[in-house]
Structures are given as structure tokens and as C-alpha cells.
Amino acid sequence: MVIPTDDDRWKNAEVERPYRDQILDFLSANPTQAFNVRELADEVADTSWDSVHDGKRLAEVIADGEENFEDDPNSDVVELELLILHHLRTVFIRSEASELVDDGSVEARKVSTEETDVPMDSENIRYYSYSSS
């Protein structure tokens, strides 16, 4: 359904800020810290990687769903949908952060996962920080 721009619903609706602007604002407000893409997604894209997911969770949900789908199909489907949504938003945030790196607003470095509590399968993970230069 089309909404005319002179309609009160349109006029009173919240203006959405691009993720790119939100990432830059968040990093500039925290200039002495660096964040990985999941932390950025939690901050600006309403994901919840910090509290409910780890790197292997999607595979676990799919495996559990195949075994337990008949017991409670809705819980597995909802969790799978949420994980997919989180992954898609995180991919988009990574793309936006990479563009900010390209234009010099943000600095990115690969950090060893040995020194972090990030549940990742790779040896290094990219962290982003505000570029003051």
C-alpha cells in the first residue's frame, strides 16, 4: 500500500539513519576502542551476537532442527530465521564498515583471536576503530 508523503503517518514517522552514519557515530564516540563486525552489528543493527550466538550456532540449530523439528517446529524455525537475519545484517554492516575504511574514516586491523573471547574459527578477526587522521 502506497502512503502519500502528505499523510500524517509519513510526516510523523521516525527518519531512519543509514547504518554507515550510525557506525561512524558509534566509532567516533568510542575513539580509544576497536570493535569486531558482530559488536558493530549489535550496536547499530539490533543483532544480539554478544548474548545468544557463537560461530557454530547456525549449524547446531540446523542439526537440532532436523532431529527435533517434530517436537517443537516453531522454536527451531524462529531461531533459524533469527540467525539468518543476524547473519544478513552482519554482512551488510561489514560492507558498510569496509566502505568507511576505504574512504579513510575508519581503520581496520586483523587481530589474533587467541587474545580475544570472540568465538570464531579463524586465527584472525578484523576489528574497526575510528580513524582520527
Task: Draw up the topology in text.
Layout: H1 8-11, H2 19-29, E1 35-36, H3 37-44, H4 49-52, H5 57-68, H6 73-102, E2 106-112, E3 124-130
Antiparallel strand pairs: 1-3, 2-3
Helix pairs in contact: 2-6, 3-6, 5-6
Report on the structure:
The chain has 133 residues and is of the alpha+beta class. The protein has one domain (36-130). It is built from 6 helices and 3 strands. It has helices spanning 8-11, 19-29, 37-44, 49-52, 57-68, 73-102; strands spanning 35-36, 106-112, 124-130. The chain has a 3-stranded antiparallel sheet with strand order 1-3-2. Helix 5 packs antiparallel against helix 6. It is flat, with a radius of gyration of 18 Å. The model has no long low-confidence stretch (mean pLDDT 80).
Task: Kindly list the characteristics that best describe this protein.
133 residues; alpha+beta; 6 helices; 3 strands
